TrEMBL record:
InterPro entries reported for this sequence: Fan1-like (IPR033315), FAN1-like_WH (IPR049125), FAN1_SAP_bact (IPR040603), tRNA_endonuc-like_dom_sf (IPR011856), VRR_NUC (IPR014883)
Entry keyword set: Hydrolase, Magnesium, Manganese, Metal-binding, Nuclease
Sequence ranges assigned to domain VRR-NUC in this UniProt record: 443-560
Name of the protein this chain belongs to: phosphodiesterase I
SMART domains: VRR_NUC
Required cofactor names: Mg(2+); Mn(2+)
EC number(s) from the headed UniProt entry: 3.1.4.1
Catalytic activity field: Hydrolytically removes 5'-nucleotides successively from the 3'-hydroxy termini of 3'-hydroxy-terminated oligonucleotides
Organism: Kushneria aurantia
Enzyme class: hydrolase
Family (UniProt): Belongs to the FAN1 family.
């Protein structure tokens, strides 16, 4: 676990889920104390009141509230709230209702009521209103036509003329609890189950010291803007009218790069939807409003389809001269000749490309073409391993461990992070340039082998965004350190740092080692393509990079052998 100041250290204790039946309560209280310490200046009056009221509740009531918070939805049948470790749910509910944390008679739409009741219960409740024998979906549709306004449980009983099969209550503080979860994790992707996974040893995390600057949100406005974007994304995913969503999109966040990145991803997603629906003008406008790494290239495509060829070419040439990434340069290189042809401009000479070695093989058909080739080529003198992206990434992650987990402001802000929060942001390398330079300098001094081996043992099993532990073993590590020249490792690692999002994928599938050779490079990387398969863009970029730097890389095209006639 990550560590914090002495005052916060005790608040980070994870309850033992195998021994403590109220482990979830202890962990939720950990979150409240942690948020109360680290975000004291950001909490509003409702959040402060909730935290104070929560700790004043009886233990059973606190436990029941946490059970409700951790379950799906905000509405519950009383019968579904029975837990052995809590005891009488009625007695536990009463203080929650008195404190206004749970509503005893909430307003329920027919959809919510139908979701809480079984088909037979719903049919029995409204037996005098709708015909018998309907499926639940049909029954709900008929009821929705008749009852179009929410009602409390007593009013539903009056409308139906029968008693509900169970009491129904609603959690009143779910949005507030979601906000506290957001403050703790810095996102709404992670849930409180992270505590249990860490407790059981399924996930183990590096220890990183926290500072007062180690927070996801600097101010209340950051928190509110995150929630605004999250709600807009939920509404977009639910299929809400695009015009309404676009009108509510906030302006770019010039004072927060990471929040503006989230905004750009949402704008890009809406633009892609518009493009797929043929709304090209709207899509082009939205792409222009997004800093997403693919937005410019997609806007060029929209302008081309709108037959705005001059505008498309101007934008494409701008991207070609100052590309945001190798991927963008590659995409635009395919579009520019087509646009020039449309405009009657002279044809440009094709760019020279380094060609890898090609190998064609016919093998017996099996489930995995990569495994088939690996088994075919493997030998004691030249062992072959199926590593794909894992080997080079792992060597990078092990060598540069200290730089990756450096406790910079805004990088680590809770105990369950597998890597820094800014890993995929453009400034990730720049903020740690000196640290990475120190790590990579070991490739010249020869110290890199000791560092990699030390971290392989000392950090075994800890989460790292570059290290897939199940793939890396002692034998593979030894072969890699013996056969991969440090000059090639530096080139690969520098390319990774240039664009982590794009370049940590696309590497060749197999690697063949030649430990007995006397040459500096005693390996060969092999990209495998089965029948009908072709190189993807990111694979082409990696292969081209290796070929340009005289790194041994082969593309093997496999055909399946014909079955012998009986």
């Amino acid at each position: 676990m990550n560590s914090a100041s002495p005052a916060a250290e005790s608040a980070l204790a994870i309850a033992d889920s195998r021994r403590d039946p109220l482990y979830y309560l202890a962990n939720f209280e950990t979150v409240l104390r942690w948020v109360g310490q680290r975000y004291d200046d950001l909490l509003d009056s409702d959040e402060r009141t909730f935290i104070d009221a929560f700790f004043a509740l009886p233990t059973a009531s606190r436990a029941l509230l946490v059970r409700m918070v951790m379950r799906k939805g905000e509405y519950f049948r009383r019968a579904a709230l029975d837990y052995a470790e809590i005891g009488d749910s009625g007695a536990a509910l009463a203080p929650l209702i008195d404190a206004g944390l749970v509503e005893a008679a909430p307003l329920l739409g027919i959809e919510t009521l139908a979701a809480l009741l079984k088909r037979a219960e719903l049919a029995a409740l409204f037996a005098d209103v709708v015909a018998p024998g309907l499926r639940k979906r049909e029954l709900q549709a008929r009821l929705a036509e008749r009852f179009d306004t929410p009602r409390t449980p007593p009013h539903w009983q009056t409308a139906a003329g029968r008693v509900l099969p169970d009491e129904i209550v609603a959690l009143s503080v779910m949005p507030l609890c979601e906000r506290l979860r957001l403050m703790f994790f810095g996102n709404l992707r992670q849930h409180f189950s992270e505590f249990v996974l860490a407790d059981l040893g399924h996930y183990r995390f590096e220890t990183v010291p926290f500072t007062p600057d180690s927070r996801a949100f600097r101010c209340r406005a950051d928190l509110e803007r995150y929630e605004q974007l999250h709600r807009l994304r939920e509404r977009f995913d639910a299929g809400e009218e695009l015009a309404t969503l676009i009108a509510e999109l906030p302006a770019p966040f010039t004072d927060s790069h990471w929040l503006d990145t989230r905004r750009s991803r949402l704008v890009y997603a809406i633009a892609r939807h518009c493009e797929r629906c043929g709304e090209l003008a709207r899509a082009a406008q939205l792409y222009d409003d997004s800093r997403h790494h693919e937005a410019r290239a997609r806007r060029v495509r929209c302008l081309e389809r709108l037959e705005c060829f001059e505008a498309a070419l101007e934008l494409a040439q701008q991207g070609e001269s100052e590309p945001g990434s190798e991927a963008e340069r590659q995409q635009l290189a395919r579009v520019i000749p087509r646009l020039r042809r449309r405009l009657g401009l002279a044809r440009l000479p094709p760019a020279a490309a380094a060609e890898p070695v090609r190998l064609d093989l016919t093998l017996p058909r099996v489930a995995s073409v990569e495994r088939a080739l690996c088994d075919h080529l493997d030998s004691a003198e030249a062992p072959v391993r199926y590593v794909e992206n894992s080997l080079i990434n792992a060597l990078f992650g092990l060598l540069c461990w200290e730089a990756i987990f450096a406790p910079l402001p805004g990088a680590f802000f809770h105990p369950f992070q597998s890597g820094p929060a800014d890993l995929l942001r453009t400034a990730f390398h720049a903020r740690r340039e000196t640290l990475f330079a120190r790590c990579l300098a070991q490739l010249e001094s020869g110290d890199y082998r000791a560092t990699i081996c030390h971290h392989f043992v000392a950090k075994q099993g800890l989460q790292n965004p570059f290290v897939a532990w199940p793939v890396l073993d002692d034998a593979l590590l030894a072969l890699a350190l013996d056969c991969l020249p440090p000059a090639h490792l530096r080139l690969w690692f520098e390319r990774l740092l240039g664009d982590i999002r794009a370049n940590r994928a696309g590497m060749p599938d197999l690697i063949r080692f030649y430990p007995q050779r006397e040459t500096a490079a005693r390996y060969e990387m092999i990209e495998v393509k089965g029948p009908g398969d072709r190189l993807q863009d990111n694979q082409r970029r990696w292969i081209d990079f290796c070929a340009r730097h005289a790194m041994p890389v082969t593309v093997c095209y496999v055909r399946w052998a014909e079955k012998a006639s009986p």
